[in-house]
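Structure in, sequence out. Go:
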């Protein structure tokens, strides 16, 4: 896999001359993706909005990222970006699997402590936009990913899964198209490479059971985010070719449009997309 985050030598960046605070930028963002449009679980868990730090800080620059990983926070520090807008709400990763094995508490997890130390030392504020961006209908996850994958003729939308008509190609051609769009050289797939494809279903992230949507909508092939063993089995048993484009990559593509949309509304704001590196390799 070739996608990596670069954390280099810190350089001096010009500060954004404004008295705009993090809460002011959040207000502009919420005009695009209101918190109220998030899923009930996110609303009940209070994972949308400010997750760490002081919303009243004067913003020097904004970092946009899929997850506020240690690498992302380091990049924000190096680029003098003191406001991070992240997609995934796991600011401090919690392990809820203690019924099966010993689990670290989020308050004592060494990685969480490193995150907190960096954020506190550099006065960085973190805001998350999860399901409200997943379900943003015009510039959110699905339309942004579809455009990147060359899927422009939307037939219908199954909540967060898009159904698209494409010029006839083989499943092998579709695999090549996804590799080019994602920069991933090796993909997990299932299906006959020579099968004709005219109708494609597109999902993203970690939608469990999403193969049902592909079956119900009668697609010739599906492009999905994270695909588990059960989903691959379900695809095979229902004879639906599937490409796994990963949770990280699909949603990193889909969250990039936050940069574009904020720049439209806040010209002059210094805003950077910060890459989360892959945490594994294929051997």
């Amino acid at each position: 896999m070739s996608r990596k985050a670069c954390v280099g030598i810190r350089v001096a960046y010009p500060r954004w001359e404004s008295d705009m605070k993090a809460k002011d930028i959040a207000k502009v963002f919420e005009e695009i993706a209101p918190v109220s449009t998030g899923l009930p679980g996110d609303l009940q868990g209070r994972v949308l909005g400010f997750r760490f730090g002081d919303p009243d800080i004067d913003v020097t620059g904004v970092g946009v990222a899929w997850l506020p990983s240690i690498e992302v926070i380091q990049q924000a520090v190096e680029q003098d970006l003191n406001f991070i807008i992240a997609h995934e709400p796991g600011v401090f990763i919690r392990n809820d699997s203690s019924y099966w094995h010993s689990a670290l508490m989020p308050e004592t997890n060494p990685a969480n402590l490193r995150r907190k130390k960096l954020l506190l030392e550099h006065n960085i504020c973190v805001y998350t936009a999860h399901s409200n961006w997943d379900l943003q209908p015009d510039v959110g996850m699905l339309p942004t990913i579809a455009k990147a994958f060359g899927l422009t003729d939307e037939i219908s939308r199954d909540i967060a899964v898009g159904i698209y008509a494409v010029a006839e190609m083989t499943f092998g051609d579709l695999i090549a198209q996804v590799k080019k769009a994602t920069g991933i050289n090796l993909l997990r797939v299932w299906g006959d490479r020579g099968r004709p494809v005219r109708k494609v279903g597109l999902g993203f992230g970690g939608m469990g059971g999403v193969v049902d949507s592909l079956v119900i909508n009668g697609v010739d092939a599906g492009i999905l985010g994270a695909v588990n063993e059960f989903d691959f089995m379900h695809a095979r048993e229902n004879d639906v070719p599937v490409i796994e484009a990963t949770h990280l990559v699909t949603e990193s593509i889909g969250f990039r449009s936050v940069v574009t949309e904020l720049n439209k509304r806040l010209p002059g704001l210094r805003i950077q997309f910060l890459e989360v590196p892959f945490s594994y390799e294929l051997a």
